Amino acid sequence: MLAAVMAAVLASAGCTAGDADGARAIAPQARPQPLQQGSAFMPPSLRAMQADELENPGMLWVARGSKLWQQAEGTDVRSCASCHGAVQSMRGAATRYPQVDRASGRLLNLEARIMQCRVERQKAPPLAWESEPLLALGAYVAFQSQGLPMRPSVEGAARPFFERGRERYHLRVGQMNLSCSQCHDASWGRQLGPETISQGHGTGYPVYRLEWQGAGSLQRRLRSCLSGVRAEMFPYGAEEHLELELYLAWRAEGLALEAPGVRR
Fold first, then answer.
1. CB neighbours of 64 closer than 8 A, spacing ≥ 6?
2. What's the distance, Cα to Cα, between the start and end of the chain in Å?
3. What is the pLDDT of residues 87-126, one digit of tens each?
4. pTM for this predicted structure
5. Where exactly are the structural domains of the chain?
6. Beta-bridge partners for 73
């Protein structure tokens, strides 16, 4: 069913699954114009739910994160607050991720940085990817930057990761032979079943998705997309995901961070 719907959408855009050119073909260096938040493609009821802190289910994870921020962990018996103080010190931090860790040379997203702090500073066991505590801490830290524009760095040590992410974004994969670009550059604004195809920005993550009945990370959504085009899914934390996250952050540069978002 999904294959038939996606094929119809691509056909209406002048594309086929094996043809990346269409009515709205975008150069690899370009961003969609005009840039629009993921929430712009949602029905008014969901936009209202996201905007209201009392109605937004993602705020439950923010509340859990606020408790974890103060909770001492590990053999060093430290909390996040022990090093960073009040969480307001994190304002602006989420807008700069993913970023390259200077000491290791690794590309880290916000969740990976939280785990690095937990292991190296608190001397505590790492949290599992997509676990409730990690989502809660990620939501709490990201919430501090809500409304601030995305401003990742793609120069210097980050450049090779960025270029691989850009290449992956335009690479057709899976049995359906589709790329991210074919949906989110060439076909945004069109209908895919009950959904309106967005520009593919990750500014709302972690998000609460109604279909998940819970919060989830951008990597969970990327894996869902790979599953949708019948491609091999990378494990959580894989460098392929992180590189793509960096490219997506660059595409969204200037858009305000919305986390925690709400999606259908």
1. 132, 133, 136, 140
2. 19
3. 999 999 999 999 999 999 999 999 999 999 999 999 999 9
4. 0.90
5. 31-264
6. 78
Q: Is 183 a catalytic residue?
A: no
E-strand stretches of the chain: 99-100, 107-108, 191-192, 195-196, 207-209, 214-216, 261-263
| Residue 18 tokens, joined | 């094996």
Distance CA 183, CA 11 (A): 12
| Residue 137 exposed, middle or buried by CB count within 10 Å (0-12, 13-18, 19+) | buried
Q: Is 45 exposed, middle or buried (0-12, 13-18, 19+ CB in 10 A)?
A: exposed
* pLDDT tens digits along 120-168: 999 999 999 999 999 999 999 999 999 999 999 999 999 999 999 999 9
Q: What kind of fold does domain 31-264 have according to CATH?
A: Cytochrome Bc1 Complex; Chain D, domain 2 (1.10.760)
Which of 15, 80, 183, 225 is catalytic? The answer is 225
